[in-house]
Amino acid sequence: MHKKLLLSAVIASLCAATSVHASITSGQLIAIGELTGSSAGVNADLSGLTGLLENGVAANLLGGIGSGLAYAGGNVFIATPDRGPNATAYNSNVDDTTSYIARFQTLTLDLSVNTSGSGYAYNLTPTLTGTTLLSSATALNYGTGVGLGLGNGASALNAVNNTNYFTGRSDNFGSANPIAGIADSSSANPSNARFDPEGVRVSNDGKSVFISDEYGPYVNQFDRATGERIRSFALPANLAVENLSASGATEISNNTSGRIANKGMEGLAITPDGKTLVGIMQAPLEQDQPASGKGDVRIVTIDIATGATKEYAYHLTNGSGVSEIVAINDHEFLIDERDGKGLGDGSNAAVKQIFKIDLSNATEVSNLTGAAALQAAAVPKTLFLDVVQVLNANGIAKSQIPAKLEGLAFGQDIIDNGLLFHTLFVANDNDFVPGIAGSNKFYVFAIADTALNFQAQQISAVPVPAAAWLFGTGLIGLMTAARKRARS
Protein backbone atom coordinates (compact mmCIF):
# COMPACT_ATOMS: atom_id res chain seq x y z
CA MET A 1 0.00 0.00 0.00
CA HIS A 2 1.22 3.54 -0.75
CA LYS A 3 2.61 5.29 2.36
CA LYS A 4 0.05 8.14 2.21
CA LEU A 5 -2.82 5.69 1.84
CA LEU A 6 -1.46 3.60 4.70
CA LEU A 7 -1.17 6.68 6.94
CA SER A 8 -4.72 7.72 6.06
CA ALA A 9 -5.95 4.25 6.92
CA VAL A 10 -4.18 4.29 10.28
CA ILE A 11 -5.57 7.74 11.14
CA ALA A 12 -9.05 6.69 10.07
CA SER A 13 -8.77 3.57 12.24
CA LEU A 14 -7.66 5.59 15.25
CA CYS A 15 -10.41 8.14 14.79
CA ALA A 16 -13.00 5.38 14.52
CA ALA A 17 -11.65 3.67 17.63
CA THR A 18 -11.71 6.84 19.68
CA SER A 19 -15.38 7.43 18.94
CA VAL A 20 -16.16 5.44 22.11
CA HIS A 21 -15.24 8.46 24.24
CA ALA A 22 -15.82 12.18 24.05
CA SER A 23 -13.19 14.40 22.50
CA ILE A 24 -10.23 14.84 24.80
CA THR A 25 -8.83 18.27 25.64
CA SER A 26 -5.33 19.64 26.13
CA GLY A 27 -3.96 18.91 29.60
CA GLN A 28 -6.38 16.03 30.16
CA LEU A 29 -5.30 12.94 32.08
CA ILE A 30 -5.89 10.12 29.59
CA ALA A 31 -4.24 7.09 31.22
CA ILE A 32 -2.57 5.69 34.33
CA GLY A 33 -0.41 2.57 34.47
CA GLU A 34 1.69 0.89 37.12
CA LEU A 35 4.67 -1.45 37.16
CA THR A 36 4.90 -3.86 40.09
CA GLY A 37 7.42 -6.37 38.82
CA SER A 38 8.83 -8.21 35.82
CA SER A 39 9.19 -11.69 34.39
CA ALA A 40 11.70 -12.24 37.23
CA GLY A 41 8.97 -11.79 39.82
CA VAL A 42 7.10 -9.23 41.93
CA ASN A 43 9.26 -6.22 42.85
CA ALA A 44 12.19 -7.73 40.91
CA ASP A 45 14.04 -6.17 37.99
CA LEU A 46 15.87 -8.01 35.19
CA SER A 47 19.45 -7.45 36.40
CA GLY A 48 19.83 -11.13 37.25
CA LEU A 49 21.45 -10.11 40.54
CA THR A 50 21.01 -12.39 43.53
CA GLY A 51 21.70 -11.99 47.20
CA LEU A 52 21.13 -9.14 49.59
CA LEU A 53 22.54 -5.65 50.05
CA GLU A 54 24.09 -4.45 53.31
CA ASN A 55 20.65 -3.55 54.68
CA GLY A 56 19.12 -6.93 53.89
CA VAL A 57 17.23 -5.74 50.81
CA ALA A 58 17.37 -7.77 47.57
CA ALA A 59 20.03 -6.61 45.10
CA ASN A 60 17.53 -6.88 42.23
CA LEU A 61 14.77 -4.90 43.94
CA LEU A 62 12.63 -2.99 41.46
CA GLY A 63 11.74 0.53 42.53
CA GLY A 64 12.31 4.23 42.24
CA ILE A 65 12.21 4.10 38.46
CA GLY A 66 10.43 7.44 38.11
CA SER A 67 13.53 9.35 39.21
CA GLY A 68 14.18 9.91 35.51
CA LEU A 69 12.23 8.98 32.39
CA ALA A 70 13.36 9.26 28.76
CA TYR A 71 11.69 8.49 25.46
CA ALA A 72 13.64 6.05 23.28
CA GLY A 73 11.35 5.88 20.22
CA GLY A 74 8.24 3.82 19.44
CA ASN A 75 6.76 2.62 22.71
CA VAL A 76 10.17 2.25 24.41
CA PHE A 77 11.33 4.31 27.39
CA ILE A 78 14.39 4.38 29.64
CA ALA A 79 13.90 4.90 33.39
CA THR A 80 16.46 5.51 36.13
CA PRO A 81 16.12 4.45 39.74
CA ASP A 82 18.22 6.64 42.03
CA ARG A 83 20.97 5.53 44.43
CA GLY A 84 19.02 2.58 45.72
CA PRO A 85 16.85 1.38 48.61
CA ASN A 86 18.15 3.51 51.46
CA ALA A 87 14.75 3.94 53.14
CA THR A 88 15.62 0.93 55.31
CA ALA A 89 17.65 2.17 58.27
CA TYR A 90 20.83 0.21 59.05
CA ASN A 91 23.86 2.58 59.19
CA SER A 92 23.49 6.35 59.57
CA ASN A 93 27.22 6.86 58.93
CA VAL A 94 26.50 6.36 55.23
CA ASP A 95 22.95 7.75 55.29
CA ASP A 96 21.72 4.14 55.01
CA THR A 97 23.01 3.90 51.44
CA THR A 98 24.20 0.54 50.09
CA SER A 99 26.36 -0.92 47.34
CA TYR A 100 23.25 -1.10 45.14
CA ILE A 101 24.62 -1.01 41.58
CA ALA A 102 23.49 2.00 39.56
CA ARG A 103 21.37 0.97 36.58
CA PHE A 104 18.79 1.99 34.06
CA GLN A 105 15.61 0.14 33.22
CA THR A 106 14.24 -0.34 29.71
CA LEU A 107 10.49 -0.64 29.44
CA THR A 108 7.62 -0.44 27.02
CA LEU A 109 4.67 1.81 27.77
CA ASP A 110 1.88 0.61 25.52
CA LEU A 111 -0.91 3.13 25.07
CA SER A 112 -4.17 1.89 23.57
CA VAL A 113 -7.67 3.24 23.16
CA ASN A 114 -10.02 2.26 25.98
CA THR A 115 -13.12 0.79 24.34
CA SER A 116 -14.78 -0.33 27.58
CA GLY A 117 -16.90 2.79 27.86
CA SER A 118 -15.64 3.55 31.38
CA GLY A 119 -12.42 4.75 32.93
CA TYR A 120 -9.81 6.87 31.21
CA ALA A 121 -9.79 7.46 27.46
CA TYR A 122 -6.73 5.24 27.02
CA ASN A 123 -5.22 2.18 28.65
CA LEU A 124 -1.54 2.11 29.60
CA THR A 125 0.39 -1.15 29.97
CA PRO A 126 3.95 -0.85 31.33
CA THR A 127 6.32 -3.81 30.85
CA LEU A 128 9.93 -4.08 32.00
CA THR A 129 12.05 -5.50 29.18
CA GLY A 130 15.63 -5.02 30.40
CA THR A 131 17.93 -3.87 33.19
CA THR A 132 21.39 -2.50 32.40
CA LEU A 133 24.06 -2.03 35.08
CA LEU A 134 26.34 1.02 34.92
CA SER A 135 30.10 0.58 34.96
CA SER A 136 33.46 2.15 34.14
CA ALA A 137 36.32 0.61 32.16
CA THR A 138 38.75 2.59 34.32
CA ALA A 139 39.36 2.33 38.07
CA LEU A 140 36.90 3.96 40.46
CA ASN A 141 37.25 5.15 44.05
CA TYR A 142 35.47 3.00 46.63
CA GLY A 143 35.20 3.55 50.36
CA THR A 144 37.14 1.22 52.65
CA GLY A 145 34.39 1.16 55.25
CA VAL A 146 36.98 1.74 57.99
CA GLY A 147 35.45 3.59 60.92
CA LEU A 148 31.97 3.23 59.45
CA GLY A 149 31.23 -0.28 60.63
CA LEU A 150 31.18 -1.55 57.05
CA GLY A 151 33.27 -3.46 54.58
CA ASN A 152 34.62 -2.17 51.28
CA GLY A 153 32.11 -0.14 49.24
CA ALA A 154 32.74 -1.99 45.99
CA SER A 155 30.11 -4.37 44.68
CA ALA A 156 30.97 -8.06 44.95
CA LEU A 157 30.19 -8.25 41.23
CA ASN A 158 33.32 -6.20 40.45
CA ALA A 159 35.59 -9.19 40.96
CA VAL A 160 33.23 -11.59 39.21
CA ASN A 161 32.97 -9.54 36.01
CA ASN A 162 36.36 -7.82 36.29
CA THR A 163 34.78 -4.40 35.97
CA ASN A 164 34.06 -1.33 38.07
CA TYR A 165 30.41 -0.73 38.89
CA PHE A 166 28.95 2.57 40.05
CA THR A 167 26.99 2.21 43.28
CA GLY A 168 24.86 4.30 45.58
CA ARG A 169 27.03 4.05 48.70
CA SER A 170 27.87 7.54 49.90
CA ASP A 171 31.44 6.77 51.05
CA ASN A 172 32.60 5.74 47.56
CA PHE A 173 34.80 8.75 46.86
CA GLY A 174 38.51 9.57 46.93
CA SER A 175 41.17 11.97 45.74
CA ALA A 176 42.83 10.16 42.84
CA ASN A 177 41.56 10.86 39.33
CA PRO A 178 43.06 8.37 36.84
CA ILE A 179 40.66 9.47 34.09
CA ALA A 180 42.04 13.03 33.99
CA GLY A 181 45.51 12.12 35.24
CA ILE A 182 45.30 14.73 38.02
CA ALA A 183 44.35 14.88 41.66
CA ASP A 184 40.81 16.04 42.33
CA SER A 185 39.37 15.81 45.82
CA SER A 186 36.14 17.66 45.02
CA SER A 187 32.78 16.04 44.46
CA ALA A 188 33.31 16.52 40.72
CA ASN A 189 35.99 13.81 40.54
CA PRO A 190 34.71 11.49 37.78
CA SER A 191 36.62 8.58 39.32
CA ASN A 192 34.30 8.46 42.32
CA ALA A 193 32.20 5.30 42.30
CA ARG A 194 29.25 6.88 44.10
CA PHE A 195 26.54 7.73 41.60
CA ASP A 196 22.96 8.85 42.24
CA PRO A 197 21.15 8.70 38.85
CA GLU A 198 18.37 11.22 38.32
CA GLY A 199 17.78 12.71 34.86
CA VAL A 200 18.18 10.55 31.75
CA ARG A 201 17.98 11.14 27.99
CA VAL A 202 18.72 9.05 24.91
CA SER A 203 21.14 10.10 22.16
CA ASN A 204 19.71 10.69 18.69
CA ASP A 205 21.52 7.65 17.27
CA GLY A 206 19.85 5.55 19.97
CA LYS A 207 23.14 3.97 21.02
CA SER A 208 23.86 5.78 24.28
CA VAL A 209 22.16 7.41 27.25
CA PHE A 210 23.10 10.56 29.18
CA ILE A 211 22.48 10.43 32.93
CA SER A 212 22.77 13.28 35.45
CA ASP A 213 23.43 12.67 39.13
CA GLU A 214 23.23 14.30 42.54
CA TYR A 215 26.55 13.32 44.11
CA GLY A 216 28.91 15.24 41.81
CA PRO A 217 26.89 16.53 40.27
CA TYR A 218 27.87 14.53 37.20
CA VAL A 219 26.60 14.09 33.67
CA ASN A 220 27.87 10.81 32.26
CA GLN A 221 27.30 9.18 28.89
CA PHE A 222 26.86 5.40 28.88
CA ASP A 223 26.73 2.80 26.13
CA ARG A 224 23.10 1.76 25.96
CA ALA A 225 23.88 -1.89 25.21
CA THR A 226 26.64 -2.55 27.75
CA GLY A 227 26.12 0.16 30.39
CA GLU A 228 29.81 1.09 30.24
CA ARG A 229 30.65 4.77 30.60
CA ILE A 230 31.74 6.48 27.40
CA ARG A 231 32.33 9.99 28.67
CA SER A 232 32.04 12.23 31.72
CA PHE A 233 31.27 15.90 31.04
CA ALA A 234 33.11 18.58 33.03
CA LEU A 235 30.48 20.73 34.74
CA PRO A 236 31.04 24.26 36.11
CA ALA A 237 33.20 24.16 39.24
CA ASN A 238 30.71 26.27 41.21
CA LEU A 239 28.32 23.30 41.34
CA ALA A 240 30.72 21.00 43.22
CA VAL A 241 31.63 20.84 46.91
CA GLU A 242 35.23 20.62 48.13
CA ASN A 243 34.78 18.88 51.48
CA LEU A 244 33.19 15.47 51.14
CA SER A 245 31.56 13.22 53.69
CA ALA A 246 29.61 9.98 53.67
CA SER A 247 27.07 11.84 55.80
CA GLY A 248 25.00 14.38 53.91
CA ALA A 249 24.41 16.55 56.96
CA THR A 250 28.15 16.72 57.66
CA GLU A 251 28.86 17.51 54.03
CA ILE A 252 26.42 20.44 54.12
CA SER A 253 27.94 21.88 57.30
CA ASN A 254 31.48 21.67 55.90
CA ASN A 255 30.87 23.65 52.69
CA THR A 256 29.90 27.23 51.86
CA SER A 257 29.61 26.77 48.10
CA GLY A 258 28.40 24.13 45.69
CA ARG A 259 25.38 21.87 45.54
CA ILE A 260 23.33 20.90 48.57
CA ALA A 261 23.81 17.28 49.64
CA ASN A 262 21.41 14.98 47.75
CA LYS A 263 20.11 17.94 45.73
CA GLY A 264 22.40 17.98 42.72
CA MET A 265 21.50 17.81 39.04
CA GLU A 266 18.01 16.41 39.39
CA GLY A 267 16.77 16.95 35.82
CA LEU A 268 18.19 16.55 32.33
CA ALA A 269 16.87 17.44 28.87
CA ILE A 270 18.27 17.02 25.37
CA THR A 271 17.40 19.31 22.46
CA PRO A 272 15.58 17.65 19.54
CA ASP A 273 18.68 17.93 17.32
CA GLY A 274 20.60 15.90 19.89
CA LYS A 275 23.36 18.50 20.17
CA THR A 276 22.75 20.07 23.59
CA LEU A 277 22.09 18.72 27.06
CA VAL A 278 20.22 20.94 29.51
CA GLY A 279 20.55 20.03 33.18
CA ILE A 280 18.85 21.63 36.14
CA MET A 281 19.79 21.57 39.83
CA GLN A 282 17.19 20.54 42.38
CA ALA A 283 17.82 23.39 44.81
CA PRO A 284 19.79 26.65 45.07
CA LEU A 285 23.54 26.23 45.57
CA GLU A 286 25.08 27.00 48.96
CA GLN A 287 26.34 30.38 47.70
CA ASP A 288 22.93 31.21 46.20
CA GLN A 289 20.79 30.48 49.26
CA PRO A 290 18.16 33.21 49.81
CA ALA A 291 17.70 34.88 53.19
CA SER A 292 13.97 34.32 52.68
CA GLY A 293 11.70 33.09 49.93
CA LYS A 294 12.18 30.27 47.48
CA GLY A 295 15.42 31.18 45.73
CA ASP A 296 16.82 30.25 42.32
CA VAL A 297 18.23 27.05 40.89
CA ARG A 298 20.79 26.90 38.12
CA ILE A 299 20.20 25.53 34.65
CA VAL A 300 23.33 24.30 32.85
CA THR A 301 23.52 23.80 29.09
CA ILE A 302 26.21 21.48 27.71
CA ASP A 303 27.34 21.42 24.10
CA ILE A 304 27.78 17.67 23.56
CA ALA A 305 30.42 18.07 20.85
CA THR A 306 32.67 20.57 22.65
CA GLY A 307 31.67 20.22 26.31
CA ALA A 308 31.18 24.00 26.57
CA THR A 309 28.70 25.06 29.25
CA LYS A 310 26.46 28.01 30.04
CA GLU A 311 24.33 28.77 33.10
CA TYR A 312 20.88 30.29 33.56
CA ALA A 313 18.68 30.95 36.59
CA TYR A 314 15.21 29.55 37.31
CA HIS A 315 13.22 31.12 40.17
CA LEU A 316 11.13 28.76 42.29
CA THR A 317 7.49 29.77 42.65
CA ASN A 318 5.76 27.44 45.12
CA GLY A 319 7.81 24.26 45.13
CA SER A 320 10.73 23.36 47.37
CA GLY A 321 12.78 22.29 44.35
CA VAL A 322 12.88 21.09 40.76
CA SER A 323 12.72 17.45 39.68
CA GLU A 324 12.88 17.44 35.88
CA ILE A 325 13.30 19.36 32.66
CA VAL A 326 12.24 18.22 29.17
CA ALA A 327 12.67 19.91 25.79
CA ILE A 328 9.76 21.27 23.77
CA ASN A 329 12.11 22.47 21.02
CA ASP A 330 15.68 23.81 20.91
CA HIS A 331 14.94 26.79 23.21
CA GLU A 332 11.70 26.06 25.10
CA PHE A 333 11.44 23.62 27.99
CA LEU A 334 9.01 22.26 30.56
CA ILE A 335 10.15 22.18 34.19
CA ASP A 336 8.68 20.03 36.94
CA GLU A 337 8.57 22.04 40.17
CA ARG A 338 7.25 20.31 43.28
CA ASP A 339 7.08 20.02 47.04
CA GLY A 340 7.78 16.83 48.99
CA LYS A 341 4.20 16.29 50.10
CA GLY A 342 1.87 13.45 49.22
CA LEU A 343 1.85 9.64 49.18
CA GLY A 344 5.07 8.45 50.78
CA ASP A 345 5.31 11.49 53.04
CA GLY A 346 2.08 10.80 54.91
CA SER A 347 0.66 14.17 53.91
CA ASN A 348 -1.40 15.84 51.20
CA ALA A 349 0.25 16.82 47.93
CA ALA A 350 0.09 20.55 47.29
CA VAL A 351 2.63 21.56 44.62
CA LYS A 352 3.34 19.47 41.52
CA GLN A 353 3.41 22.10 38.81
CA ILE A 354 4.91 22.10 35.33
CA PHE A 355 6.20 25.44 34.07
CA LYS A 356 7.23 26.50 30.60
CA ILE A 357 10.41 28.53 30.01
CA ASP A 358 12.26 29.97 27.01
CA LEU A 359 16.06 30.25 27.06
CA SER A 360 16.39 32.09 23.74
CA ASN A 361 16.77 35.52 25.38
CA ALA A 362 17.78 34.42 28.87
CA THR A 363 20.65 36.04 30.78
CA GLU A 364 23.78 33.92 31.17
CA VAL A 365 24.68 33.79 34.89
CA SER A 366 28.00 31.91 35.12
CA ASN A 367 29.66 34.98 36.63
CA LEU A 368 26.82 35.82 39.01
CA THR A 369 26.58 34.65 42.61
CA GLY A 370 23.94 35.15 45.26
CA ALA A 371 20.16 35.04 45.49
CA ALA A 372 19.54 38.67 44.56
CA ALA A 373 21.71 38.57 41.44
CA LEU A 374 20.16 35.33 40.20
CA GLN A 375 16.57 36.39 40.84
CA ALA A 376 17.12 39.58 38.84
CA ALA A 377 18.38 37.48 35.92
CA ALA A 378 15.90 34.60 36.20
CA VAL A 379 14.30 33.30 33.03
CA PRO A 380 10.57 34.19 32.61
CA LYS A 381 8.18 31.30 33.27
CA THR A 382 4.50 30.50 32.81
CA LEU A 383 2.42 27.79 34.45
CA PHE A 384 1.72 25.06 31.91
CA LEU A 385 0.08 22.24 33.88
CA ASP A 386 -0.99 21.94 37.51
CA VAL A 387 -0.70 18.18 38.03
CA VAL A 388 -2.25 18.12 41.52
CA GLN A 389 -5.26 20.03 40.24
CA VAL A 390 -5.81 17.68 37.30
CA LEU A 391 -5.33 14.49 39.33
CA ASN A 392 -7.60 15.81 42.06
CA ALA A 393 -10.27 16.60 39.45
CA ASN A 394 -10.03 12.96 38.34
CA GLY A 395 -10.94 11.69 41.77
CA ILE A 396 -7.40 11.06 43.05
CA ALA A 397 -7.13 12.34 46.61
CA LYS A 398 -4.20 14.60 47.43
CA SER A 399 -3.02 12.03 49.97
CA GLN A 400 -2.78 9.49 47.13
CA ILE A 401 -0.78 11.69 44.75
CA PRO A 402 2.86 10.56 44.95
CA ALA A 403 5.12 12.92 46.88
CA LYS A 404 7.92 12.44 44.36
CA LEU A 405 6.62 13.00 40.83
CA GLU A 406 10.04 13.26 39.19
CA GLY A 407 10.14 11.75 35.68
CA LEU A 408 8.93 13.71 32.67
CA ALA A 409 9.02 12.67 29.00
CA PHE A 410 7.10 13.20 25.80
CA GLY A 411 6.03 9.94 24.15
CA GLN A 412 4.29 8.96 20.94
CA ASP A 413 1.77 11.31 19.36
CA ILE A 414 -1.87 10.26 19.13
CA ILE A 415 -4.73 11.21 16.86
CA ASP A 416 -7.95 11.53 18.84
CA ASN A 417 -11.21 12.37 17.05
CA GLY A 418 -9.19 13.78 14.17
CA LEU A 419 -6.95 16.03 16.31
CA LEU A 420 -3.21 15.67 16.93
CA PHE A 421 -2.03 15.41 20.55
CA HIS A 422 1.40 14.93 22.10
CA THR A 423 1.58 12.58 25.08
CA LEU A 424 3.34 13.75 28.23
CA PHE A 425 4.34 10.96 30.64
CA VAL A 426 4.88 11.76 34.33
CA ALA A 427 6.44 9.11 36.61
CA ASN A 428 7.04 8.83 40.35
CA ASP A 429 10.01 7.81 42.48
CA ASN A 430 8.59 5.51 45.16
CA ASP A 431 11.92 5.18 47.02
CA PHE A 432 11.73 1.37 46.69
CA VAL A 433 8.99 1.24 49.33
CA PRO A 434 5.72 0.48 47.47
CA GLY A 435 3.95 -0.28 50.74
CA ILE A 436 4.51 3.33 51.82
CA ALA A 437 4.88 5.39 48.65
CA GLY A 438 2.78 3.29 46.27
CA SER A 439 3.77 1.43 43.13
CA ASN A 440 5.83 2.73 40.22
CA LYS A 441 3.17 4.76 38.42
CA PHE A 442 2.96 6.48 35.04
CA TYR A 443 0.45 9.26 34.38
CA VAL A 444 -0.23 10.26 30.78
CA PHE A 445 -1.50 13.70 29.79
CA ALA A 446 -2.67 14.72 26.33
CA ILE A 447 -1.18 17.99 25.07
CA ALA A 448 -2.82 19.53 22.01
CA ASP A 449 -0.46 20.23 19.13
CA THR A 450 -1.74 23.81 19.13
CA ALA A 451 -0.63 24.30 22.75
CA LEU A 452 3.09 23.94 22.04
CA ASN A 453 5.61 24.66 19.34
CA PHE A 454 6.70 21.08 19.76
CA GLN A 455 9.58 19.48 17.89
CA ALA A 456 10.05 15.77 18.49
CA GLN A 457 13.49 14.28 19.01
CA GLN A 458 14.26 11.89 16.16
CA ILE A 459 15.81 8.81 17.76
CA SER A 460 17.17 6.09 15.51
CA ALA A 461 16.24 2.51 16.28
CA VAL A 462 19.13 0.53 17.71
CA PRO A 463 20.30 -1.86 14.94
CA VAL A 464 19.53 -5.57 15.37
CA PRO A 465 22.18 -8.05 14.09
CA ALA A 466 21.17 -9.20 10.60
CA ALA A 467 21.36 -12.91 11.50
CA ALA A 468 18.74 -12.49 14.21
CA TRP A 469 16.05 -11.69 11.69
CA LEU A 470 16.37 -15.17 10.19
CA PHE A 471 15.14 -16.90 13.33
CA GLY A 472 12.17 -14.80 14.39
CA THR A 473 11.41 -12.84 17.51
CA GLY A 474 11.48 -15.87 19.81
CA LEU A 475 15.19 -16.46 19.32
CA ILE A 476 15.88 -12.73 19.50
CA GLY A 477 14.32 -12.77 22.96
CA LEU A 478 16.48 -15.71 24.02
CA MET A 479 19.64 -14.05 22.71
CA THR A 480 18.75 -10.82 24.50
CA ALA A 481 18.20 -12.69 27.74
CA ALA A 482 21.54 -14.46 27.34
CA ARG A 483 23.34 -11.15 26.82
CA LYS A 484 21.69 -9.74 29.94
CA ARG A 485 22.78 -12.75 32.00
CA ALA A 486 26.32 -12.37 30.70
CA ARG A 487 26.41 -8.72 31.78
CA SER A 488 24.84 -9.23 35.20
Topology (elements, then pairings):
Blueprint: H1 3-17, E1 28-35, E2 37-38, E3 41-42, E4 68-71, E5 76-80, E6 103-113, E7 122-133, E8 135-136, H2 157-161, E9 164-165, E10 197-202, E11 208-213, E12 219-223, E13 229-232, H3 248-253, E14 265-270, E15 276-281, E16 296-303, E17 309-315, E18 321-327, E19 332-338, E20 352-358, H4 371-377, E21 381-386, H5 387-393, E22 405-410, E23 414-416, E24 419-428, H6 434-437, E25 440-448, H7 472-487
Description:
- This protein has 488 residues and is mainly beta.
- It has one domain.
- The chain has seven helices and 25 strands.
- Strands 1, 22, 23, 24 and 25 form a five-stranded antiparallel sheet that branches. It has a four-stranded antiparallel sheet with strand order 4-5-6-7, with no helix packed on it. The chain has a four-stranded antiparallel sheet with strand order 10-11-12-13, with no helix packed on it.
- A hairpin with a 5-residue loop joins β16 and β17.
- The radius of gyration is 22 Å and the shape is globular.
Determine the strand fraction and express it as a percent band: 25-35%
User: What does the main sheet amount to?
Assistant: 5 strands, antiparallel
Give the N-to-C terminal Cα separation: 44 Å
Domains (count): 1
Low-confidence stretches: 1-19, 176-182, 464-488
Helical residues, percent: 10-25%
Strands, count = 25
Number of helices: 7
**In terms of structural class, how would the helical and strand content be classed?**
mainly beta
Rounded average pLDDT = 90
Shape, per Cα inertia axes: globular
Rg is 22 Å
